[in-house]
Amino acid sequence: MEAISHAGTVLGVLAKDGVVLAAEKKVTGKLLDMSGSKEGGYGGSGEKIFLLNSNVISGVAGLTADANSLVNYSRQTAQGHLFNYNDDIPVELLVQRLCDLKQGYTQYGGLRPFGVSILYAGYDPHYQFQLYHSDPSGNYSGWKATCIGANNGTAQSLLKQEYKDDIGIDEAVGLVLRTMSKTMDSTTLGSEKLEFATLTLDADKRPKAKIYKPAEIDALLVKHDLAKKDEDAEMRAA
Amino acid sequence: MDISFALTGKGYVLVAADTTAARSIIKMKSDEDKIKVLSPHLLMAFSGEPGDTVNFAEYVERNLRLYHIRHTYPLRPASAASWIRRSLAESLRSRNPYSVNLLLGGYDTATHTPELYWVDYLGTMTSVPFGAHGYGSYFALSLLDRYHDPEAGLEEGLAALRRCIDEVSKRLVVSPGKYKVKVVDKDGVREIEL
């Protein structure tokens, strides 16, 4: 639990036509090889936000190695369900499976619990868009907007003030970006420190998960007027 | 020799099966129910090896009910069909395979469409507008090719079903006397007197 409160923030907001996830990356730097996330297939640097199944994405906070193991388990579980039922796994069911695993590690075997909190954003035909949060104890709950990791208290109260029940996906994106900019360590947002993803429905009413590439995140920040301003250029212009 | 038919219509699926339970030359029972209600909107007509049939049908019924209890909503017809087919396919290469043929008729409450699946003991599955198992299929399939209308109302569907049953009575050497007919639609499952 300690490790999680020091980990990079992950924020999730449920809208009536989609779910938004944003995360602050802690492992950054000039020497870091980002080619995987720039051209990669499913998007994401592999640090905070992961695709679990075509209808579920997740953001993790805590011990990265533990998180990787859990993400792998959940991907296998989702495919196992597809194998048996020929249908995308319902979001709550996937969360339950992961939580059963986490709980097992608190009760049996003399093993240590997974030091990871996870936010799950997904869609299924039964309950439409959903957002869940699970912690190392294996407890989970459904949320309209929530936050894990560092500064989650601040972010949670910010979300409580600004969240409205019938918020649309574009508004939710704006809300998430604004809240992230207020709770992140650095002064301005940028694609090196931010991971961003949305889950919506495509034209055929099928769930579409999109984990943004760095260039797309920059474009999004410009659109919401939160991008790092080029100070030299501004001064020259003035 | 169990006979079962099923056909889809506008917002419903009709499933019919004979009600004779016989061994060699003796008719033990003439009111046997060979159509299991798996969930509020799913019916399954079973036929095949005596013993295996009821055993497998009950196994499916109990598992689907467990899913419903665990997750507060039942499996949709397509997913249930996949699970059932998977169970049969796994049984096929085991020491003692189930020898059961099925007709799965359901109403998907999410997409508001009637769905019918033809499944055989090998784990073959296909979605069909109408189907039949057993000797009855030799007569029913060509009749339904000609007279089935997927957009027909319940009365027309019943008329097509009656044709199949009458043809079997007329032409099959050991034809069953009575049939049980059940229908599934948006309001659930109910039995129909032909």
Automatic annotation (TrEMBL), chain A:
Pfam families recorded: Proteasome
Coiled coil: none
Keyword Isomerase: no
InterPro entries to which the protein is assigned, alphabetical: Ntn_hydrolases_N (IPR029055), Proteasome_alpha (IPR050115), Proteasome_alpha-type (IPR023332), Proteasome_sua/b (IPR001353)
Keyword Membrane among UniProt keywords: no
Superkingdom assignment: Eukaryota
Keyword terms: Proteasome
Family: Belongs to the peptidase T1A family.
Protein name in the entry: Nucleophile aminohydrolase
Protein species of origin: Rhodofomes roseus
Automatic annotation (TrEMBL), chain B:
Keywords assigned: Cytoplasm, Nucleus, Proteasome
Cellular compartment(s): Cytoplasm; Nucleus
GO CC entries: cytoplasm; nucleus; proteasome core complex, beta-subunit complex
Gene Ontology biological-process entries: proteasomal protein catabolic process
Main location: cytoplasm
Highest rank taxon of the organism: Eukaryota
Subunit-structure text: Component of the proteasome complex.
Family: Belongs to the peptidase T1B family.
Function: Component of the proteasome, a multicatalytic proteinase complex which is characterized by its ability to cleave peptides with Arg, Phe, Tyr, Leu, and Glu adjacent to the leaving group at neutral or slightly basic pH. The proteasome has an ATP-dependent proteolytic activity.
Name listed for the protein in its UniProt record: Proteasome subunit beta
